[in-house]
């Protein structure tokens, strides 16, 4: 067991933990960290882009649970030397991203720190939540978008090269338009944050089902994390309808596997501490 | 204006920001950071004590708004070298403190980091919230507990000396028993986190009223932060009742000033970046 799983296992079991968000009275609530030198390096992105991505990765959790994000709390630890211009750019990244999704920033905390560490809580209206569990034997598995760019661009950044300004690693594209329309036909969903193969392992654990792949997925695609595309399962009788919604919303869609009773082994290296 | 106020001023105004917690549908929601080398040093406290204090300072915000804390989300950034024993001790500090207040930990995030940085969101049932605003001219001001120990012990720790294991700096004592009983007679409240004189400035701003002190308060008392005692205002006709509740719950109480129309100047040095 890795240390993260060990630490989480030290807590009392609750019915809420383990999904992308906890569900309470028709609200989905999630909290995620976006820390300098853990999730990003300062030289990779502008402060505006950092604040935007911090918001987007949190909003992504709400969307894949079929929640409408409404409120955010921001805790921002900021180096003392940041200028007012830098603070303003950072705030603009948070505020404009919140505005784009109709989110009101209702509170949080600001402290001085040696690096820029962001922690965000998103509260979403979630009257018909979609969980990781819920997948049934025979369901089809699909993901949105084209996977692989995020990992490739992360590797470029790590060796000091630059990436396209429109890179998904810098600017994740969320699939809210597709997902909300398709939600009535989806049984189980999560966002691809650790990588398709990693995240399939979570679906496997939540549903005790494995997968028969009928589309081969190369490792650079299956092991690419931080894609924030949607991985989901649905009853095969909805395939046509879901493909139609994907075309309508111009969302690339790959239907790649079927849920079956068998074990599953993730081929990627573990990426948690 | 300090950088913290400047940064907060960059955001769209919302009716929620500025109190100890935001209020949403009978819930009080607050998020606070508790970061290594910002709020504590590793050698000052055990991991159990760090986790406990991180929880308590967040729970304090809920209590002084007259909220009953119900749920917590924890984001914990942990150094990679922490052993399982250390992780267990940390988790125990969070869990036991949550249990003591009837709080369910519903989610959060765990990441590897260079230092131990904790960010907690507390959600509290809050059907009759008490705000910072609400104080009226002629109201009496009071605080619970004996102030000064936290500052004195912080100074000891900063110069490498040790403190009493029961120090309020290590183990804040919350006044939930007193406060919930007294709440029907309280018009305005907040916890003393930055120091009495600092926090009076916040009451001053929220209510446009100053204070006539009839109990002299020395600077080492008025400038002592992280006390997590309660500062509150009430109609003088409730004084007897409030003093009675304080005796009943064995809560030291100092009624020290009256709210009047005049300016207020905080005598302490600013402690935010």
TrEMBL record, chains A, B:
The keyword Membrane does not apply. CDD domains: ThiL. ATP binds at residues 108-109, 132, 193. Residues 18-124 form the PurM-like N-terminal domain. Mg(2+) 2 binds at residues 32, 61. It catalyses: thiamine phosphate + ATP = thiamine diphosphate + ADP. GO terms for molecular function: kinase activity. Mg(2+) 4 binds at residues 20, 30, 61. Keywords: ATP-binding, Kinase, Magnesium, Metal-binding, Nucleotide-binding, Thiamine biosynthesis, Transferase. Mg(2+) 3 binds at residues 20, 61, 191. Mg(2+) 1 binds at residues 32, 109. PANTHER family: THIAMINE-MONOPHOSPHATE KINASE (PTHR30270:SF0). This is Thiamine-monophosphate kinase. The gene is thiL.
């Amino acid at each position: 067991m890795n240390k993260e799983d060990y630490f989480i296992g030290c807590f009392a079991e609750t019915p809420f933990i383990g999904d992308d968000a906890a569900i309470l009275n028709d609200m989905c609530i999630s909290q995620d960290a976006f820390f300098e030198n853990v999730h990003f390096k300062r030289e990779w992105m502008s402060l505006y882009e950092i604040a935007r991505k911090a918001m987007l990765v949190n909003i992504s959790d709400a969307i894949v649970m079929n929640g409408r994000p409404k409120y955010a709390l921001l805790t921002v630890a900021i180096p003392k030397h940041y200028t007012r211009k830098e603070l303003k750019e950072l705030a603009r990244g948070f505020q404009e991203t919140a505005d784009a999704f109709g989110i009101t920033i209702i509170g949080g905390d600001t402290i001085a720190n040696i690096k820029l560490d962001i922690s965000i809580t998103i509260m979403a209206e979630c009257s018909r939540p979609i969980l990781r569990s819920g997948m049934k034997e025979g369901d089809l598995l699909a993901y949105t978008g084209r996977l692989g760019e995020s990992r490739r661009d992360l590797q470029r950044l790590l060796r000091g090269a630059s990436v396209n300004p429109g890179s998904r690693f810098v600017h994740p594209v969320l699939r809210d338009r597709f997902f909300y329309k398709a939600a009535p036909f989806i049984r189980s969903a999560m966002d691809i944050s650790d990588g398709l193969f990693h995240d399939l392992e979570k679906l496997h654990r939540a549903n005790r089902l494995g997968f028969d792949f009928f589309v081969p997925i190369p490792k650079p695609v299956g092991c690419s994390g931080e894609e924030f595309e949607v991985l989901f399962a649905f009853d095969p009788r909805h395939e046509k309808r879901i493909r139609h919604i994907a075309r309508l919303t111009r969302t690339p869609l790959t239907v790649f596997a079927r849920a079956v009773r068998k074990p599953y082994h993730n081929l990627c290296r573990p990426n948690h501490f």
